[in-house]
């Protein structure tokens, strides 16, 4: 990565989520998107044209691009580790969508290879860098609710309908509500309590078989491979507890619910799948909640890659790190094992809580010089 000019970005994977990334990354003045790549080169070309990116092509073109410093990995979860490994071997830093990998060994291999090569790897969610969760951190860390004791997180929705075009993928290994939405809620909890140390979970599948309604496999019956409802009791290394429910079995939507209970009050935190949102606090003895407006950077998806770019230039650790993404992966694997074994499972990994963003951190300010 050069010490002058904007940091070069290459994006691999031009599915739906790529629009959010491209909208933001093409607006952040410290980075420049040079190429959009995909196995489906026509789709890559379409996305590149839509966001004013000059080049498009297959993934190999992004990996070999001489002006690309960071690869944004937006491929399907089953190949996250493979694509990230290829990017590292190409001498590029990596930002990957969640999860980092689908198993511990692949995740550990990525961290080891990045460290060996002197490269950065970071992973979603970067919502922890948004105004909502950063404001929550400031409130908690200055003691407004006293000492945090417990957490409650709740995500309940109807789940994918039978006519969802990705139904089979969403009900396969590496998906389901735990792997699809768990990273947002579990990562948010680490920002309050630090690392998980043990989990005890239960899960169930409400409808063991489903019939695909659309696409080339329409009419085919599939077996649901992952729990569609997961309930977890987690313990943190500091002794606090949290209860988390992740469900696709609810007929109505209850999302983004996180409460942190402290010795002197309770804080309601915004949806961890968003970068902003409303907070509210209820102090000991109060009968009403007091609303709080979030402050700081909003930005959107791509903040994590921007933080890598700025952190490399500054020679400091980036915040949504590979270490943190691996710890959340390890925790999700442990939750899966706890469901399968019917017993508590110890989480072996630890991740250092990242430094908060300065309140004035602005993704839309140019901080890199052309000279």
TrEMBL record:
MF (Gene Ontology): nucleotide binding; oxidoreductase activity
Domain Gfo/Idh/MocA-like oxidoreductase N-terminal as annotated: residue spans: 9-120
InterPro entries: Gfo/Idh/MocA-like_OxRdtase_N, Gfo/Idh/MocA_oxidrdct_glycsds, GFO_IDH_MocA-like_dom, NAD(P)-bd_dom_sf
Residue span(s) of domain GFO/IDH/MocA-like oxidoreductase: 134-267
Positions of region (Disordered): 351-371
One Pfam short name: GFO_IDH_MocA_C3
Keyword NAD: yes
Highest taxon above the source species: Bacteria
UniProt keyword annotations, A-Z: NAD, Oxidoreductase
Protein's UniProt name: Oxidoreductase
